[in-house]
Amino acid sequence: MRPLWRLTLGLWLAGCGDVTAQPIGAATGDGGASDGPVDGSSHVDAPTGDASDFCTGQGPIPLPGTSECTGDLAHLFRFAACACDSLAVSGVLVTESFDSSTDGGSSLSAGASIAANGQVATNAQSTVAGSVWAGGDGLANGTPAISLMSPAGVTSSIALDIESGGDVQVNGTFLVGHDLYADGNVTLQSGSLSVVGSVFIPAGDSASGVMSGSGVMSGPVQVAPPCDCSNPIDVVSIVAAHQTSNDDAAIHLSTSGLDTPPAPVALQCGQYYVDGIHGGAVELDITGRVALFVDGDLDVDAGLKIVLFPGAELDLFVAGNVALQGTTSLGDVNAPARMRLYVGGGTVTLSANATVGANVYAPSADVQLASSFEMWGALFAQSLQFSGDFTIHYDTSVLQLPGCASTESPCKTCDDCAGATPACKGGTCSACASSADCCAPLDCDTTTGRCELPTE
C-alpha cells in the first residue's frame, strides 16, 4: 500500500554471496603494536603478525546455531528508535539522518523513523525526519496506537508517513509530508492536522478535522508490528560460545582483565571474552576490528570511555545488564555505525550526560531517562520513555554491514531476509516487487528488487 520510493545510495547490501566490500571501518593493518595509540598511556599489548581474514574485514563473526553472522543483525537498526512495547517522549523530539560513509557524513532529508509495536505517544514539539509507525499491539480498547501532542503555537512535522495499526489521536499543529495510514479512526481533538498526501482508513471509520491534499481513501488498512521482536537475538548464547574460542591468550588478557583496570586498555584486532566490565572509571581504546564478549554485567560507576581509533569498529555483546554512571562516552558521534552494542539483560541505565555514538540493541530492557538525552546511532529496546527532550542522529550506513545469510534461503518473515532477496514469499527469500514486500520502514526499489530506506 505504501508508495514506492527510489534510493540511489544503496543502503541495503547483500549477503556473503554477493558482497565484496569490507565492513564499515574494517581494519587494514596487521593489528600490531605500531597500529596502537601514541599517547604514552599503558595498554594491553595486541597481537602481532600476519593479518587474519577477520582483521582485514573478510572474516565474519558467526552467530552460534545459525548460518548468519553479526552483519546480518543490521536489520535491527532500520529505525532510529524502535520499541517492542511503547515509545513515549515529553519535551522536544528531534530525529535526523546522515550517512557517515560519505565524505563529510552527508545529511539526508529523511530516513530517521521511529516506531513501536504497541503505542507511540508524544507530548512534545516534534521534528521527525522520517515516519512514525505503531503496531497497536496489546492496547486496551479506546487507546490510540499513535497519540501526538504538540505545544500551542508551534508546528510539529513528520517528513514521511504516519502508519498506525489502530486509532490516531492528535492535539496540536502537525504537518505530515506524505501519507497517513490508520487501521482505525483519525481524531483531531485540537489544533490542525495537515497531510500532504492521502489519508487511508478502513470503511466505516472516520478522519475528523484532517486536511488532506489527496483526500481520504476508504479500504482495508494493515500495519504490521514494525520492530523485529518476535525472535530476539540470543546475546547470552553468543557470548557463551566465545568462552573457549577467543584471542585472549594472544594479548595476555585474563577473563577478569576488564574488572577495574588500572589504566586504559587497548584492544586491537581480535575477538575477546571477559567475565564482566566493572570499575570506577574504565577506558577501552579500540584500535582495530574488535568483537568483545562480556559474560556478565557492564557496570561502571565513574565513567566508561570507549574510543574508536581511525579505521576501528566494535561489536560489544553484554550477556547481563548495563549500568553506566559518570561521564560516559561510547563510540564515535561522527561514525556511530562503527559500534554496535547488544545487551542480553533487562536493565540499561545511562547517565544524563552520556555521549553515545553507537547502535544499541536491548530487546528486554525498559529504557527510561528523566532528563534530556541526545545520541548518535540507533536505539532498540523493550520500551523507551523520555521525560525530557530526545534527539537522535541516525547513521544510515549501519545498514551497509555485509552479512552471511544465503540468498533465497527459507524464511518466515522479511526479517529473515536481506540483500538481493529481501522479501519473504512462500517461505523463501526473494526479490521485492513492491514496498508491501519490505520490512518497515523500507521501500522497494523495483529496478533492483532490493528494500531500501526512503529518503524523501
Which regions have little confidence, pLDDT < 50, spanning 5+ residues? 1-51
Please report the distance between the alpha carbons of the first and last residues: 17 Å
Describe the largest sheet.
Answer: 27 strands, mixed
Determine the strand fraction and express it as a percent band.
35-45%
Helix content: under 10%
Average predicted local confidence, pLDDT: 86
Q: Number of DSSP strands? A: 35
Which overall shape is indicated by the principal axes computed on the Cα atoms? globular
Please report the number of helical segments.
Answer: 1
Structural class: mainly beta
Could you please describe the fold and organization of this structure?
With 456 residues, the protein is an all-beta fold. It is 1% helix and 39% strand. It is built from 1 helix and 35 strands. It has one helix spanning 235-240, and strands spanning 81-83, 86-99, 106-108, 114-116, 119-128, 132-134, 146-149, 155-158, 162-164, 168-176, 180-182, 186-195, 199-201, 207-208, 210-212, 216-218, 265-267, 270-274, 277-279, 282-286, 289-294, 298-300, 304-308, 313-318, 322-324, 329-331, 339-343, 348-350, 355-369, 373-386, 390-395, 423-425, 428-430, 443-445, 450-452. The chain has a 27-stranded mixed sheet that branches. It has a 4-stranded parallel sheet with strand order 19-22-25-28, with no helix packed on it. Strands 32-33 form a two-stranded antiparallel sheet. The chain is globular and about 70 Å long. The protein starts with 80 loop residues before the first strand and ends with a strand. Mean pLDDT is 86; it is low at 1-51.
